[in-house]
Write a structure and sequence with these properties.
Layout (H helix, E strand, L loop, with lengths): L4 E3 L6 E3 L13 H5 L16 H33 L1
Antiparallel strand pairs: 1-2
Length: about 80
């Protein structure tokens, strides 16, 4: 089986497909974020209630915001710790 190669957008280094970070510079590999399995395969002709899919996508957005807020809080605590 042939392994696919993705290139880092920051430094251009070749990386194996599926890696999350560049082995050269450590930057996040953009294709890894795009390839996160957030899609659902639905057989043709089958009805599906997509409300739960939309709810899950909303949860993922909220989760990203929560991690960002947590990061900011930790940075503020660290800065306050340094100036005391």
């Amino acid at each position: 089986m042939e392994e696919k190669t993705v290139y880092c957008e920051k430094c251009g280094k070749a990386n194996k497909e599926g890696v999350r970070f560049c082995s050269g510079c450590g930057a996040p590999i953009e294709s890894a974020r795009k390839n996160v399995n957030r899609s659902v395969q639905i057989p043709a002709g089958r009805a599906v209630n997509t409300a739960w899919i939309k709810a899950y996508e909303a949860f993922l957005r909220i989760e990203q915001v929560a991690w960002g807020i947590l990061g900011i809080i930790l940075i503020v605590i660290f800065i306050l710790f340094l100036i005391q």
